[in-house]
Each structure stands twice: as C-alpha cells, then as structure tokens.
Description:
By secondary structure, the chain is α/β, with parallel strands linked by helices.
Amino acid sequence: MSVAVQETLSVSGIILARTMGRGPQLVQHFARISGDLAKLEVKSHTAGEWQWSLIGFALAVLPAFTLLVGGLLMKTDNPATIGTLVAMIALQEQLLWPFEQLLEIGRDARKTRALFARIFEYLDKPVEIVERVDPVVIPRKAMRGTVQMEQVCFSYENAHRPAVNNVSLTIPAGSHVAIVGATGSGKTTLGYLLARLYDVDKGAIRFDGVDLRDMSFDTLSQMLGVVTQDPYLLHASVAENLRFSRPEATDADLIAAARIAQIHDHITALPNGYDTLVGERGYRFSGGEKQRLALARTILRDPPILLLDEATSALDTRTERAMSKALDDMSNGRTTITIAHRLSTIRHADLIVVMQNGRIAEMGTHDDLLAQGGQYAALLRGN
Ligand SMILES: Nc1ncnc2c1ncn2[C@@H]1O[C@H](COP(=O)(O)OP(=O)(O)OP(=O)(O)O)[C@@H](O)[C@H]1O
Ligand SMILES: [Mg+2]
C-alpha cells in the first residue's frame, strides 16, 4: 500500500496521473489494495483464534470442574474439608495463570515466525560484491587516477546479449575521455562497472594499477566520483545534501563546490539560501538545477577520477560551457570521463570513445574521428 501511495501521491505520480487522465483508475486501484490489506489483517488476527478460544474455554471451566469434584468428594465416607477444596482452587489458579501465559507466548512466536520468514528471505540473499579480506588501501595523496580496462565483458542476469563486450581502454591520469554512442550501447553500464556496482564477468578494471576487486571500498569511493544520469537528492536542506558526500566540509567548501557547478548564485537567491529544504515537500528544483546540485555534491569529495553520466544533459549550452570551464580550471590532474549525447560538449576531449552494442566501435580525437568518416562522423552529421 505504501508503494501505491508513493507512486500516486508523490508529485511526479500526481503529474503523471493528471496528464494521463488516470485519476479514477488509480483511486480504484488504491481501494482494491486497501481492501486486500484489510482482509489480510483480519486474517492474520483471527488465524488460530478458534483453537485459542477452545483452550480459554477449557481453562475457565476447570475451576468449576474442581468444585464439582470437591462437592462429590464431600459426600463420600472420607469427606474432603472445605479448607482443602479452597486450597486446591487457589493452587489451581496459580498454576493455570503461568500456563496461560506460556500458551500466549507460543501463539505470538508462531505469528512472529511467519513475519520473520519474509525478513530472513532477504537476509539469506548472497552478497554479490564483497570486499577482500585484506584489501588494498591507497591514501588520497598517493592517488593519481589512471584507469585501465582490459577485455572487460559483462552481461546483466537474464540478458540475451552482453551489455559490455570485450572493452579495452587505458586512460592516463589527468586526461579527459568522452564516451558516446547510441542509446542502449552500454555507456552507463560501463560506468557501473567502474564504480563496482557490478563485478566484471571477464577481464579486469584497474585504478592506479590495482584491480577494483582488490581495492578497499573506502579507497574506491574516494577514487571515483560519479554523477549519475538521474541524480537523487535527499529530503533535507541544500547544505545537508551537499555534505552527504563529505560531512566535515566547511561552508566555504560548499560554496566553492557550488560555484564550480554554477549553482551558487541560484542557491543564494533562494529565501533560505543553503538551508532551503530539497525534495517533494520542500523546494522543487528544476532538472538542470538538480543536476548541478548533484555535481556540486560530487565535486565536494574532490575525487581524482570523475565520471559524469549525462550529468549536464539538462543544462543550456551556455551554463554547460561555463561549468566545463570551471571544472577544467579546478581539475589539476583530475581524470574526467564524460558520457554524453550532445557531441558539441565533448569536442575538446583528449580521447573520444564511440560505443556500439557494448563494444568500442572506434576511438580517437574529434579531428581523427571526423577524418575517418565512420560512426562518430555519422553521429555528428545526425546531431
Ligand atoms: N538492470 C538491467 N538488467 C538487464 N538489462 C539491462 C539492465 N540495465 C541495462 N540493461 C540493458 O543493457 C544495455 C545497455 O544499457 P546502458 O544503460 O548501459 O545503455 P546506455 O548506453 O547508457 O544508454 P543511454 O544512452 O540511453 O543512457 C541496454 O540494452 C539495456 O536495456
Ligand atoms: Mg545511460
């Protein structure tokens, strides 16, 4: 039910429902789900309840039964005294009470086990990406930022073809590489592999000569900063969103990062400035503003390798140009990998890699590729 509420009552959900005219159907859908949930609740509260009633009934009848037996015993030749009978009943009460408690615990345990079965189902799932026992740790000062990919292959589970197929690429520290290619050609997947969100099936990826699988998670996250295609902002203030990447950052650090991402002026113009609440219940930033906030957040970490996956796609060309200039100015030896559809933005990259169906179709500088008259030239003509 909370998924249904999230989907239909969130701002994007309402916009979708309104523009598609699906309001009444969603109300029906919600009514059906809450009906199902109500039935389930009733069922869970009444399951095994008749057995429990029988036990309760038996326990309530027992004292009466004792009285009956006692009464009968009084009529015999060797009659029991009233005192014995009262003592018996008192004793019985004392014994029945803990017995009742015990039964109740049994009932609760049964209910809880049913709920825990669902939790354990998740806990029992094998962890796919694990840190090595003695991982390689590289101090921030020693990081240079070279990236090597060696015959990297990767397929998603149940996919009929590999998303990344035999990709080999060496990126020297401090250079700017652009990855372009048709939609679905495996660019984002390649980025996921660099961030080790998935492990490669074959081949290897190395940062500064260290295989990602040997690197500590901490080193990896310091080494690579990622701005994803659809940035996610927390429901918190702008400052808290930025500090998520580096909690100890000073206000001056925040402002410097926001300046590079070309968002500082916009934030200061807001009534609450850096304390403005972000998210559905707070200030709603535009697509391009969100991208710039996400970029500022990553810049704040100051990683030696920066991966931008369509991170500036929602910006107008002037803002984008100002941003890439600011990025270049502060890069001092930072390796930048840009995934882009807008070819005008990557024209000056040191190396342009064109991907097609998970493979590298061609690579070179803008001028080389243009002269070759292959894929890149075709993409450029189509732009
Ligand atoms: N989780 C997944 N499970 C199965 N297949 C996936 C998954 N994610 C992506 N794919 C598939 O892998 C291929 C490569 O996807 P990827 O997201 O890397 O493309 P892309 O080059 O980034 O495209 P775009 O330019 O549209 O962002 C696509 O065919 C896609 O459908
Ligand atoms: Mg993508």
